[in-house]
Amino acid sequence: ALKVTGGEVCFDAVKFAYHPDRPILKGISLTVAAGQRVALVGPSGSGKSTIGRLLFRFYDVTGGAIRIDGQDLRDVTQQSLHDAIGVVPQDTVLFNDTIRYNIAYGRADATEAEIVAAAKAAKIHDFVMSLPEGYDTAVGERGLKLSGGEKQRVGIARTLLKNPPILLLDEATSALDTQTERDIQDSLNAMGEGRTVITIAHRLSTIADADCIVVLEKGEIVEEGTHEAL
Ligand code: ATP
Ligand code: MG
To answer: Please, which domain of life does this record's source organism belong to (predicted)?
Structure first.
């Protein structure tokens, strides 16, 4: 099982191809120190989401290695890896159940107080309390009764409740209104406290806040540095 001591993530000369004739990542070397926040940017198709999929081990690298606190992902159980990494995807999938169920998904043992604390940190609690049925509100098929920003904040609350040492965020490319964007940025910043955060960034605010920005192009890192330096 993976034993997370600090949450350092190391990509060591990582190569990957979905198909042998078409290399996607051509030797990515990047170390994200424990507690550091890295923003991954680059054109569409450059391989950003692929890096996330490899970290979660949806696929194995075809060259090099990925290590968390020195442990090769291929040497740890899938369960322990998934416990260590919280993923906030562009489109959070909600279940046709209540808001409470959706926040507590994966943490069936969570108390009401823990659920409310996670919802507050994700800036969704006030919205939930404004609904006639509160946490018992049914979100509908695929969460259709909630807006995109509300769904994402439910997903953030779910991840907060899971409390993983490493976070992988894939930001939505779609435009949000400024208040929603600010709310989500606040909850993401709160969530990042004391964790290693890798964000596939589309928002300028995220990029400006990152400790390090990594620019990917055609499967290679072409630039790396702080917002000021780049
Ligand atoms: P975007 O900004 O549009 O989300 P990205 O940088 O996240 O782009 P990836 O999703 O990592 O890009 O894709 C990198 C390349 O790999 C693309 O050319 C894409 O077509 C290809 N690709 C992605 N997923 C698969 C797959 N399952 N099978 C084959 N090729 C894939
Ligand atoms: Mg992507």
So the answer is: Bacteria
